[in-house]
Amino acid sequence: MIASAEFVKEAFVRFNAEIFSGQLPVPHIQLSRARSFLGKLKYKVTPGAFGRKTVCSDYTLIISTLYDLPQAELEDVVIHEMIHYLLMIRGIEDSSAHGPQFRSYMNAINERFGRNITVSHKGRAADTGRMHYVGICELNGVVKPVGASVDKVRKLQQEDMVGLIVCSKDMAPRLSAGVRKAFPVDKIDWYVTNHHYFSKFPHLRTVKMYLVPRTELPTLTGRNDLGGY
Ligand SMILES: [Zn+2]
Asked: Are 43 and 88 in contact (CB under 8 A)?
């Protein structure tokens, strides 16, 4: 997904409560088309005159909209900036931008909240428009999702649903074979695409399908002949 102001605000408020005990005042939120960073904390520095302390104010959390990342990674970017923010407003000094203080908060949060915050987003540019292997499965009969209600199944019967496999290149052959065995599938058309529609689906690693209405699918071009799958 690509960050929106609503998403960033919502993530900030949620993680402020969950992780930072609500200690952080809500900053300005800004989106940018920056290529050089994913997230950044901007603030105004007023040097302390006559022996007074330097004051930082006007905090702005900036998130780049140039990167299409899984939601959890975007959340990690927001939390990363929130750690910088916490250190700033608490006046905790660190030896560098991501010094021992930063890392100790980061590691504690990763551990306690199951996050994957990092200190380096280098190489992330390669994730722009991450490639998905997408298998569109023509269903022969209705696939009942586990635990689906009668109403849900009826709705599925009315709508023209397709099964969707979204995965990495490595998993495609295995999932293709597995899905054919496990589900009533007539055929699977494979595409390699970086269309942002597919970013919301975590790459599958086990034999599963996402069920989506056919009308919701984007028009896919660049169909690859991945016949063997
Ligand atoms: Zn940082």
From this structure: yes
The Å distance, Cα 93 to ligand 1 centre, comes to 14
Structural domain boundaries, residue 138: 129-216
Sheet (strand 210-213) strand order: 185-193, 132-139, 161-167, 210-213
pLDDT in tens, 150-163: 777 777 666 788 89
Give the distance (Å) from ligand 1 centre to CA of residue 122: 12
* Span from the CA of 114 to the centroid of ligand 1 (angstroms): 19
Residue 157 sits in the same domain as residue 180: yes
- Ligand 1: distance of its center to the CA of 109 in Å? 15
**What is the Å distance from ligand 1's center to 61 Cα?**
12
Residues 201 and 89 grouped into a single domain: no
Q: What's the CA-to-centroid distance between 21 and ligand 1, angstroms?
A: 21
Q: pTM (2 decimals)?
A: 0.54
Cα-flanking dihedrals φ and ψ of residue 37, to 5°? -150, 160
pLDDT band at 12 (very low <50, low <70, confident <90, very high): very high
Residue 125 scores a pLDDT above 60: no
- The predicted structure's pLDDT at residue 123: 37
Q: What is residue 209's three-state secondary structure? A: coil
Residue 30 inside a domain? The answer is yes
State whether 38 and 88 are in the same domain. yes
